Automatic annotation (TrEMBL):
<keyword id="KW-0418">Kinase</keyword>
<feature type="binding site">
    <location>
        <begin position="11"/>
        <end position="18"/>
    </location>
    <ligand>
        <name>ATP</name>
    </ligand>
</feature>
<dbReference type="InterPro" id="IPR018094">
    <property type="entry name" value="Thymidylate_kinase"/>
</dbReference>
<comment type="function">
    <text>Phosphorylation of dTMP to form dTDP in both de novo and salvage pathways of dTTP synthesis.</text>
</comment>
<dbReference type="InterPro" id="IPR027417">
    <property type="entry name" value="P-loop_NTPase"/>
</dbReference>
<keyword id="KW-0067">ATP-binding</keyword>
<keyword id="KW-0808">Transferase</keyword>
<protein>
    <recommendedName>
        <fullName>Thymidylate kinase</fullName>
        <ecNumber>2.7.4.9</ecNumber>
    </recommendedName>
</protein>
<dbReference type="InterPro" id="IPR039430">
    <property type="entry name" value="Thymidylate_kin-like_dom"/>
</dbReference>
<keyword id="KW-0547">Nucleotide-binding</keyword>
<dbReference type="GO" id="GO:0004798">
    <property type="term" value="F:dTMP kinase activity"/>
</dbReference>
<comment type="similarity">
    <text>Belongs to the thymidylate kinase family.</text>
</comment>
<feature type="domain" description="Thymidylate kinase-like">
    <location>
        <begin position="9"/>
        <end position="198"/>
    </location>
</feature>
<dbReference type="Pfam" id="PF02223">
    <property type="entry name" value="Thymidylate_kin"/>
</dbReference>
<keyword id="KW-0545">Nucleotide biosynthesis</keyword>
Length: 209
């Protein structure tokens, strides 16, 4: 049984990941593969509990950058071992709303955690495991946050200063430039054009398999 492929959708809040995921899911199914969809942080009962914990506003208790980083990798360790790898090994394709690039962009770029602190966690958690395709939906923070804020209350991370999101975006773009499996999609275009670009990127990926 050939292993499945691991596809990740990344981007700032309001980038349009939800509709991209729906589109890619139906394209994978159309190609005849079973899809397991997941999200980070989360995707297992324990990792979903970590998600609640990490997004919650703890009022007077400051959430340290170190605690936030460790929680992201703890959730990822659970998800990779319990869901992603078993699904890929059984031949299913896995479609993820965020993965490791989020930690490198948000914690590494946004929170300015040095690579010397992140790299050992990546090694412990992933041992070189990485997506076959990452679609990064690129939006200026002002555009994405305006879309996301239309939905209501902001969680703890979304309450960060705009400069945090600018640093996160810059880091995403640098990471994509260094990753031959990553494709940058201009997600500031009209929805129809974004969807066309996503479909084309996925078709190019399928053509290389
Ligand atoms: N995080 C982290 O710090 N480190 C990590 O390692 C990981 C995560 C894994 C997860 O929260 C938070 O955790 C996230 C990063 C951090 N935090 N922040 N801040 P989440 O999962 O709840 O949030 P999200 O991933 O950012 O989801 P989102 O805000 O829902 O973004 P989205 O899924 O991309 O948005 P959407 O629902 O697809 O679109 C938002 C709206 O925009 C919607 O009404 C769309 O119809 C509209 N939209 C989308 N595209 C367009 C275009 N092209 N034109 C016009 N309108 C559009």
């Amino acid at each position: 049984m050939p292993k499945g492929k691991f596809i990740v959708i990344e981007g700032l809040e309001g980038a349009g990941k939800s509709s991209a995921i729906a589109l890619i899911k139906s394209a994978i199914e159309h190609a005849g593969h079973q899809v397991v969809s997941t999200r980070e942080p989360g995707g297992t009962p324990m990792a979903e509990a970590i998600r609640e914990c990490v997004k919650k506003d703890w009022q007077d208790e400051q959430v340290t950058t170190e605690a936030e980083l460790l929680l992201m990798y703890a959730a990822r360790a659970q998800l990779v071992a319990n869901v992603i790898k078993p699904a890929l090994n059984s031949g299913c394709w896995v479609l993820a709303d965020r993965h490791d690039m989020s930690s490198r962009a948000y914690q590494g770029g946004g929170r300015q955690v040095p690579d010397s602190m992140i790299e050992p966690l990546r090694e412990i958690t992933l041992h070189g495991f990485h997506p076959d395709l990452t679609l990064y939906l690129d939006v200026e923070p002002e555009v994405g946050l305006a879309r996301a804020r239309g939905r209501g209350e902001l969680d703890r991370i979304e309450q960060a200063d705009i400069s945090f999101f600018h640093r996160t975006r810059e880091k995403y773009l640098r990471l994509c430039a260094d990753d031959s499996n990553a494709v940058v999609i201009n997600a500031m275009q009209d929805m129809d054009k974004v969807q066309q670009d996503i479909v084309s990127a996925f078709a190019r990926f399928m053509g290389q398999q």
